[in-house]
Design goal:
The structure holds two protein chains of two kinds. Chain A is an alpha/beta fold. Helix content of chain A is 38%, strand content 18%. Chain A is globular and about 35 Å long. In chain B, a hairpin with a 2-residue loop joins strand 15 and strand 16. By secondary structure, chain B is α+β, with helices and mostly antiparallel strands. The chains are: A alpha/beta, B alpha+beta. At the A-B interface, helix 1 of A face strand 2, helix 1 and helix 2 of B.
Chain lengths: 134, 601
Amino acid sequence: MEINKETFKILILDDNEIDLDLLEDILMRLGFENIIKSKSGLEAIRLTEAHSPDLFFIDIMMPEMSGDEFRGLLKERPATRNTPVIYISGIISKQEEKAISGRFPSGDLIVAKPFTKSKIARAILESLGMAPES
Amino acid sequence: MKGFNGKIARINLSSRQVTIETPSERFYRQYLGGRGIIIHTLLTEVPPKTDPFAPENKLVFALGPISGHPFVGSGRHSVGCKSPLSGGYGESEAGGYWGAELKKAGFDALIIEGAAAIPVFLWVKNGHVELRDAGDLWGLDTAAAHSALQSELDDSRIRTAIIGPAGENRVRFSCILHDITHVAGRTGTGAVMGSKNLKAIAVKGARPPQTAAPQKLKEINRDMLKNFKERSKHWMVGTGRGIVNHEKTGNIPIRNFKGGKFPGVEKITPQILCENYLDKMAGCYGCPIRCKRVVKLEKPFTVDPVYGGPEYETLAALGANCGIDDLAAIMKANELCNRYGIDTISTGVVISFAMDCFENKILTLHDTGGLDLTFGNAPAMLEMVERIARRRGLGDLLAEGSRRAAEKIGNGAIDFAMQVKGEEIPMHEPRLKQAMGIHYSIHATGADHATGSSDTLPLDDSSAQKLHDKGFAAQLVNYLGLCKFVPWTHQEVKDALLSITDWEMESTELMKVVARGVTLARIFNIREGFSAKDDTLPPRFATTPPDSPLKGIDPQKLEKAQKTYYRIMGWDEKGVPAREKLAELEINWAAQYLISPAESV
C-alpha cells in the first residue's frame, strides 16, 4: 500500500504556533499536500467535520480542551473512531517515549518533541501499519 | 507539478543508502529551489555546532525550477553546506551543463550526508543513484579524474562534479568543478566533499521534465537568442571588459586592497588575453553568449586549455591584487587553481595577505621557506598556489584561509586579512561600491559580490534600501537556477517561470521567497554563534588610500546603514529576525532556533 500524498489529509492540533508550523513544514517536505492546522480542540472538531482527515497529530497538553479529550471525541464518532492518531508532546521525555516503545496502551503512537523529519516519517508509516522506508 | 522532477535523492555515504524524497508542491513554491532548498535542508537537518568536516554536515546540490529547461541562462545550480571557511552558512553557484544534466536525470537536488569509509564517486543516471569505488581517482587532478570517469563509465558525454587534491586535503577554500571549468568556487564546498571521501558525481540524463507551456517558453527565449549581442556584451571578451577603467575608478583591488595606482593593469586585460592566447570561447547549457574564455599557452608556461581561462575575478585576485601584471603567470595560476580545485578569489587574497605580512615583516624568509613574497613576484605567487593546494610549508597555514592564518600568525596580521566571517573579499572595492560594503558585511556566507549592488555611490540614507532592492533581484536567480549575466527583464523571468511551472508568481511572492532564504540563512548563522558583531569589514576599509580615488568608509555611516538594512529585513537592532517577520514569511517554525535571542547575540 502506498500513501497518495496529494489526497491524504492530515490534521495537526497544537496550541503552540511554532510547533504547529514546524510539523507543517516537515510534512510539506515529506510531500504531503493536504495539511490542516488548528490551535484549539473546538476549532479542530469543526475542521474534522469539514475535511475528514486521514490522520491526526494531537498535542497532549492544551488549554480548554486537552489532547485526550479531543481523542475521546474522535472515538465517539463512527467516522473517526478508527482514524490513526499520533500524539505529540513536550512533556514526555525521549527516555519515556522509548520506555513505552513510542505507543500508549490505547495503541496510539506518541512522538516526543522536538521532532525531526525522520521521526515523523517513521511515525506516519507505523500508524498506518506500513513498513518504515529503508 | 510541471518544471520540476519532484524528487530529491538523499545519499547517506556512511550507510551507503539512497532514499528518494518527494516534497510537496507547496514546499517547492515556498522555497523554489537552489539556495532555498539548501538553506531549508541545512537549518533543519545539520545539528547545531556541527564541525563542518564531520559526517553530520550535509552537502546539497540543488537546481532551480528554470535549471535545465530550454531557456538562455538555465545552466545554473547551487551547492551548499556548513562552510569550513566561515563556520556558518556556505553556498556557491556554478554554470555549465552539470545542473541541466541532473534535471534530465530525474532529480531536483542531491543531499549528501555521512562520510564514506573509502573514496567513492556517485553515478547518477536516469533516476538511479549508485555508489562506486573511487580509489583509483583519489589524488588525481580534476581533468585526469574527469577523463578516468569517462573511461570507467564508457561515455564521453557524462557530466561531472569533481574535487581536486585540494578538496581531498581539506583546503578550506577548495571548490567543486563541474566538467573541470564550471566552478562552485566559494565557501569551501570542495573541502566538505573531500571530508566525505566523495571524489566526484557523474551524471547522465535523458530529458528534462515537462514544462507547462513549452511554446510560450520558446517565444520568450527567442528574443534573447536573436538579440543577445545587443542585450549583453559578455559575448565579446567575457567578464572584465572594463578592467582598465576599474583601475582608474579604484574598483579593482590593488596589492591586498591597499589601493593606489597599478599601471600594469594594461597588461592583464581580457582583450590582450583574447588577442594572444584565446583557444576558444566557451559557454553553458542553452546559452549563445559564451562568456568564458579558454586559453592556451606554450611558453614561458604550459597552460592546458582543458582548464579554461581566467575570468575577471581571477585576473584581479591573482593579478592586480597581488601586484602582478604578468598575464601568462595569471593564466598559469588559474590553471593550477582549477587543476587542484581551489577558489581563485580566496587563493589570490590569501596570497596577497601573506605578501602584505611579508612586506610588513610579520612573515620572514624563514616562515616562507625562502620564498620572496613581495608584491609583484609572479613565480612566488605560482609557488604559493602549489603549496596551498598541497598544504606544504606556509601553504598549509594559508590553506586554513586568511582569518585563521592571521590568528595563528598574530602580531597584528589580522589587520591584513581581507575577509568577512572568514571568507575572502571579492574583487569589487567596497570603498568605491559602498552599498556592496554593507552587503559584504551582512551577507550570511561572508563577503559575496554576486548578490550585492554595484552602485558606485558613497553611503547615504538610501544605500541600505537600494542594496535591499537590487540585492534581492540579484539573489532571485540563485533560487531559480538562472544566470545573472543573461540580462532578462524581471517580467521575462516571471513569464518564463509561469511557462515552466504554471505558477503565476507576482514580484511580491518572489521577493518573499528571497527574504525567506536570507532570513533562514541569518538564523542558521545565529544558531552557530554569529551576531551583529560579525557584520563587519576589515579596518583597512575605513582608511583612505593615498594616490587613489577611493574614500574610506565612515564606520558610523556603515553601522547606520546596517541598522537600516536590519530594519528593512524585519530584524531587530541586533540583527535577529523578529517573530512577526517570521510569521509574515510563513516560517514561524524557525523561531525554535531563536528561543533565546538575547543569549545568541
